[in-house]
Amino acid sequence: MGSTVSFLLLLFLSTINHISSESIIKLPSDNDISGGNRKVRADDNVVCDSWRLAAETNNAGAWNGVPARCVKFVAEYLTGERYRSDSEVIGKLASEFAKRVRLEGEGRDAWVFDIDETLLSNLPYYQDNGFGSVTFNETSFDDWVNVAEAPALAASLSLYKELQELGFKIFLLTGRSEHQRNATEANLLFAGYSNWERLILRGSSDQGKSATLYKSEKRAELVEEGYTIHGSSGDQWSDLWGYAVASRSFKLPNPMYYIP
Ligand SMILES: *[C@@H]1O[C@H](CO)[C@@H](O)[C@H](O)[C@H]1NC(C)=O
Ligand SMILES: *[C@@H]1O[C@H](CO)[C@@H](O)[C@H](O)[C@H]1NC(C)=O
Question: Which ligand is nearest to the CA of 177?
Fold first, then answer.
């Protein structure tokens, strides 16, 4: 009798043990994937797409340069239809929000746009400069800015025009410096932008400040002037957070570089 109970208990315990080990999800190992002993790395596309998501959601924090194994992925993302599609979805969501905003009128309803990788795309420059995988060269980038032929990001151009029709005042808040004002204005007009309310660039007293601080200070000045910042669009978190933030912020994709 005693031994039968022990046997049943043992059987019961081994069943539990069996169930619990089976209830843990087993992920395929590298060996399972390759079907043999040959070690294969996880697909770069999968790993790099996860890295991109981590960068965009700021889980990656202040990242410095595209990981070497992801340069090809980033190049394909930016030059393929995915970047365009991501930007269009964000532009559409911004537009839907803007249409729901109850404007206060009196010309005090503001929307703040960043410029680089938001209104203008510097993809032609980055295409020749490693898609963010090489150290930023200020000299060659400034040369590119002076050419003033960066194309518009299509989704941002249509949002920009729609916001103007809805009655928003458009403020352009950029990390570019005051000495680049002419080239920046010329480039914006070249790309199809016009009738912005104000173009704000870094003056001498703004040099050396983080983008987050500089942009917060400038937004706070707008609020002090009586503007309500309903929306803000930028490719960097530093375009959007800090203080005097917009009611809604729209983060455009940029897997090439991170500005604090
Ligand atoms: C940066 O760009 C300038 C102008 O194109 C070039 O002369 C210089 O060699 C570059 N510097 C580096 C470190 O690549
Ligand atoms: C910018 O353009 C204005 C008028 O076109 C001109 O007077 C000024 O010298 C230019 N500034 C620079 C820094 O090129």
Answer: 2
Cβ partners under 8 Å of residue 249, min gap 6: 231, 232, 233, 234, 240, 241
List, chain by chain if needed, residues with CB within 6 Å of any ligand 2 atom: 179, 182
Tell me if 139 CB under 6 Å of ligand 1.
yes
pTM of full prediction above 0.90: no
Q: For 16-37, what is each residue's pLDDT tens digit?
A: 444 444 566 655 554 444 445 5
- 141-149 own/partner pairs: CB under 8 Å, 24+ apart: 142/180, 145/176, 145/180, 145/183, 145/184, 145/187, 146/180, 146/183, 148/183, 148/184, 148/186, 148/187, 148/190, 149/124, 149/187, 149/190
- Four-residue CA torsion sign, 113, 256, 208, 188: negative
